[in-house]
Amino acid sequence: MNKDKLDIEKLLYEQLPKIEEKILYELPCDEDIDYEFSIEFESKMDKIIKENEKKVKKNTYKNLKKIAIVFIIILSSIVTITTIKTEAFPENLIRIMKKVYKEFTDYNFINPHKSNVSFKYIEPKYISTGYKEVERIEEENYLSILYKDKLDNYIIYQMMLYSRDVIVLDTEDAFVENIKFNNQYAQYVEKGNTQQLLWHDKNNIYMLSKELPTKKITKKDKKEFIKIAKNIK
What we know:
Elements: H1 3-26, H2 39-54, H3 57-74, E1 96-100, E2 105-110, E3 132-139, E4 142-148, E5 154-161, E6 164-169, E7 175-181, E8 184-191, E9 194-200, E10 204-211, H4 219-230
Antiparallel strand pairs: 1-2, 2-6, 3-4, 4-5, 5-10, 7-8, 8-9, 9-10
C-alpha cells in the first residue's frame, strides 16, 4: 500500500469525529423541533414497536433498519449503524462522508468554506438523441430538468448549491464505480436498467439519472451517459 493512501486514511479518521461532533452540536434540541406526529402515525408506531418486541433479535433489527431509513433522511443520517468508506474523492476527504448501508448509500456533503458565489444554473450542453425537456424546476439554490423520449424513458438532471446536503442513492445489488471526468471525481451507479452519476465542484453538487429501454446496460450505454455529464460545465 503506498504512503499517500495511508496518509489520506489517517487524515480521515483524525478529522471525521470533529465533523460528526460539529453536526451533532448544530442539531436542534427535541423541544425546539416544532412538529407533532398525527395520532394515527403514533398509533401505528406503537403497534410496530410492540410487534417487534415479540420477534427474535434478527427480525427486529431488519424491521427497525427499514424504519430508520425514514429518519435518516429527516435527520441527515445522524443516528445510524454505518460503515465509512475511505476510497474516492481524495482531495475532498474532509468534506464528504459516505455511509454505506445494505439498501442504499448516503452521501453527506459538508462544505466548511461558505461560498459567496451566487448560484448560477448550469445545464447539459448535450442530451441523448430522442430526448426532449418536459419539466423544469428552478429555485434559488436548486435546478432540476426532466427529459423524456417517446417510450417515456427518462433522464433527470439536478444541481444544487454545495453547502450541506444529504443525497441518498439506491445501491442495493448495484454496480458502483468511482470515475473521473473533467478533472472531477464522480460516483457511478448501475442498477437494473438505470444509471446514476453523483459529483461536485467547489460550489455545486450535480446528479444525473437515466432510465434505459433495456435490461442490461452496455459499455456503449455507459459511454453515452458519461458523455452527457462531461457536457455539464
